[in-house]
Amino acid sequence: MGQKTDAAKNDTIKNDALQNDAVISVRDLNVKFHLRGQRLHALRGISLDIHQGESLAIVGESGSGKSVFIKNFIGLLDKNGWIDSGEIWFAGQDLAKLKDEKVWRKIRGGKIAMVMQDPMTSLNPLKTIGWQIAEALKLHQGLAGEAAKNKTAELLSDVGISLPETRMKQYPHEFSGGMRQRVVIAIALACNPEILICDEPTTALDVTIQAQILQLLKDLKEKHHLTTIYITHDLGVVANVADRIAVMYAGDVIEVGTCEEIFFQPKHPYTWSLLSSLPQLAAGEEELYCISGTPPNLFQTIQGDAFAPRNPWALQVDFLYRPPYFEVSPTHKAKTWLLDPRAPKIEPPAAIRRMMELGKQPQARAGRKESADAK
Amino acid sequence: MQNERRNVLLDVRNLSITFGRGTKTFKAVDNVSFHIYKGETFGLVGESGSGKTTIGRAILRIHPTSGGDVLYKGKKINGKLSRAEDYEVIRHMQMIFQDPMASLNERAKVSDIIAEGLMNLQPDLSAKEKKRRVEEALLSVGLLPEFSSRFPHEFSGGQRQRIGIARCLIMNPEFIVADEPISALDVSIRAQVLNLLLRFQKERGLTYLFIAHDLSVVRFVASRVAVIHKGVIVEMANTEQLFSRPLHPYTKALLSAVPIPNPLLEKKKELLIYDPSCHNYESEAPQWTEIEPEHFIWANRPELAQYRKALDL
């Protein structure tokens, strides 16, 4: 009995700690754009905490607003966009209200660095890669001359490039895609950031290189005590690297939970759809699940749940009222009326049920198709 | 056993493709052999630069070959052909390109893009018949006939890829080279395109050469798979055979890189990296050998002995 209460106490302490150690805390963020004479409501009231030292993956289709969301953290919102309301707390400052470019320059790169999607276009083709890394070192760490050179070589070997002394004298065109992405990561690290944002870091790369880059990012996170944020459209990629996953749809985070919770106990029908459209989870001859229709038009105000028109499991209430967050566990919450106690019990699709089974027996050696073959 | 009775549609024998002239030649594809049965999906997997696209293009007569034979229904189709023969061969084969953003002419209407192949081979087709065929092709890929007067920039990536598929299907091909048809698409749209390709295969009995770098997709669509590394096919087998018992170290490395959407397995996974120096080919050159029925591997004799041991043969 006594032990039980102790455990419960520990849990609450842990939860408090979880809530308090947020490095970035976003509260009810609304971002709008002026586009062709109309207003586009790109982010519709996002609230999300990013904890110290974790790796968070933000997953969603293209156009769901994941890149727009992240761009707010480094003050790089496009000129026709503005923060309509909401707060972004980082190191005691509200980034949503921050307008001073001088302060932004200290945060952008220095505190929060970013690795862009396409390594083919994010490097300057006219400068050697050594010069490009040293530039970041000079601006953010004040290093010059021999010191900068040594540090550049160190960074290059950190990201797994052999012969750094020779390689730093070469130009981007002499590097393959995977190697360029390593250089981009080295530049991001040269700023000595606390938070590293990776915007689709591996989408442009081969599977083998993708696996290596993800492993590298994971190792560097440990070594430099980084908080990492991954943006991706592929749920399959993040299973390895993410501690927590936030699923975005139509400018809102509709489900957030630990990696295990999202994969083994997904609650939102959109998360179900994303997972079941992965070919890795398909069993035998059955057709792959695909989400019908298109994402909603954000020029118009959205009534109810944004996913309802494409959702085969939608309830009537989904078309009328926007669901609030329902808490599944202290770390897991989802915006769907299906979690309301009054909602009918709805069976998730077959692929998700198989995942739930897998989650119950972690020792099972089964991977993707094996579970189906066993039947 | 069953396979012996199946018809071989395409047979590639000792194919080599060389780029450049004189002393500056580069051998992109080296002595590659494989065969594709009628009605199956054959997956060709490798990293970028391994020569997989080059093979696909050489089969379609876009690249000249420098050695070996490509036999289509038993007839040699590489090298010099008369114009009539060329037309005949091309008509039965089509290609779906990788990047739907780059493969459609931005200045042409959808109807013109889709009908272009038709107009080349059947120039005397009436305008009415042409319109009917275009609309039929659009409907079959799930697009509306009204779209035929629009331009490519008005469509999303998934829709563009479907236009690419419609353009290919209007020719009523028997054999399609699908060159990474889904790697440029969002995951949710990938499923649409994959389902579409599989449905057409069932309905029309198409044969696909499916080129990809992602083994997880290939496992879903293909019945047989060949793994290519630097212009050499290192292993070829039935899909399940290859996935359950990979032999060549490069295949193993590729398999280990496939992301598994299961955090428990994925976090424990060990990433293998292929190092070509693990082969000792100085004393004895490797051969293309059938190690068990329908399972081919590129290896020399000591390695074969080792692999046989691993297979318990």
Overall description:
The complex is a heterodimer of chains A (about 375) and B (about 325). Chain A is of the alpha/beta class. Chain A has a domain at about 260-350. Helix content of chain A is about 35%, strand content about 20%. Chain A has helices at about 1-20, 65-70, 100-105, 130-140, 145-160, 165, 175-190, 205-225, 235-240, 260-265, 270-275, 350-360, 370-375; strands at about 20-35, 40-50, 55-60, 80-90, 95, 110-115, 195-200, 225-230, 245-250, 250-260, 325-330, 330-335. In chain A, the strands form two sheets. An eight-stranded mixed β-sheet of chain A has the order 6-7-8-3-9-10-12-11. A four-stranded antiparallel β-sheet of chain A has the order 2-1-4-5. The longest helix of chain A has 19 residues, at about 1-20. Chain A is globular, with a radius of gyration of 22 Å. The model of chain A is unreliable at about 365-375 (pLDDT under 50). In chain B, strand 7 (about 175-180), helix 7 and strand 8 form a beta-alpha-beta unit. In chain B, about 45% of the residues are buried. With about 325 residues, chain B is of the alpha/beta class. Chain B has one domain (about 1-310): Rossmann fold (3-Layer(aba) Sandwich), CATH 3.40.50.300. Chain B has helices spanning about 1-5, 50-60, 85-90, 110-120, 125-140, 155-170, 185-205, 215-220, 240-245, 250-255, 265-270, 300-310, and strands spanning about 10-20, 25-35, 40-45, 65-70, 75, 95, 175-180, 205-210, 225-230, 230-240, 285-290, 295-300. The mean pLDDT of chain B is about 85. In chain B, helix 4 (about 110-120) packs parallel to helix 6 and helix 6 (about 155-170) runs parallel beside helix 7. The interface between A and B is large, with 44 and 40 residues.
